[in-house]
Structure prediction request, 180 residues.
Amino acid sequence: MDTAHTPSQPNTPPVDHSRGQLLMGVGALLVAGVLAYGAVAIPADAGYAGVGPNFLPWVVSAAMAVCGVLLVWEARTGGFRQMPEPSGAARGDWRALAWVSAGILLNASLITTIGFVLSCALCFVLAVRGLRASEGKPIGDARQTLKDAVTGMLISAPVFWLFTKLLAVNLPGLTATGWL
Prediction:
């Protein structure tokens, strides 16, 4: 078996990603332009802390523009600095991405149904499961899942309390009193 040309060999020539990176940079600049165009239509009346409703769209637009410029600059000067293709754990794990994505999507879709604390705990359980899978560790049994759920609740409950009680930001709760 000839293994001289497999990507895991250290002497394999790097892959040129500069064209894709250039396209991503131009795309980011276009999105920044569209966001800035949309921010112009939002009234600039100052609200909370002197910041108007168009502040966040302008911040996002500026951040996208900076990222776009940096991507274009990097592509024009070498494209990811001609880094070799990652191998092993550095390549990433689609299962981990799927677990974490499922946690985020379920959190967003269930937060008004089961409340902030429980939906965040579920997100935590699935994200931790994905992170374990990405490291090649076993994702855990029912006992580990219960530990992860309790840990998620121990993290999200104080966050819920801080937002609702100290910052007066309404977050969805499971009960009439707002807890859970």
The chain has a mean pLDDT of 79. The helical segments are 18-40, 55-77, 94-114, 116-134, 142-166.
